[in-house]
Amino acid sequence: MACDTVPRSGEVCLTVPDIVFQGSSALTLDGKGRITVPARHRDALAVLTNSQLTLTKHPVGCLLVFPRQAWVSFREKLLELPMQADGWRRLFLGSAVDVEVDGGSRLLVPPELRDAAGLTRDVLLLGMGQRLELWDATRYAAHEASVMASPMPDAIQDFVF
Q1: What's the pLDDT tens digit per position in 79-110?
Q2: CATH top-level class for 16-140?
Q3: Checking DSSP bridges between strand 24-28 and strand 122-127, what pairing results, if any?
Q4: Which pTM does this prediction carry?
Q5: Residue 54 in contact with residue 96, Cβ under 8 Å?
Q6: How many CA atoms lie within 13 A of 150 on its CB side?
Q7: CA-to-CA distance for 102 and 158, rounded, in angstroms?
Q8: How would you classify residue 20: left for phi > 0, otherwise alpha for psi between -120 and 50, otherwise beta?
């Protein structure tokens, strides 16, 4: 249950920080620009946000998919940035669209956002902690190859694998 109500005995109140989205799901964008939300994310999204999401552009060429609570937190941080960040604020806020998962567990991706991320048919939905990313499958493969070809950041080199 979301935390805007009082939990009953035995119920757990979930918030965005309680949920960690991870893993990838290969999906197909239908002719109307919809994807089916994978079952492993569907329940968490329904509980957390009543299936209300916000989509916006990411500067690397994918779309950010925020549960509504996580978007509100991100948006507040953007609004606190100094004037020098207006270009980035414009990118995120100016392209943000509120959407809902429909009764068929589908999410409509607006045409302007599909175009911005190069989404055609084969897409990937990646769990990225408190948010998800929606990628064109081919674009993501190129991005991943580029990341793998680059040096590992110092912050990760010290991890024990």
Answers
A1: 999 999 999 999 999 999 999 999 999 999 99
A2: alpha beta
A3: antiparallel
A4: 0.85
A5: yes
A6: 10
A7: 43
A8: beta
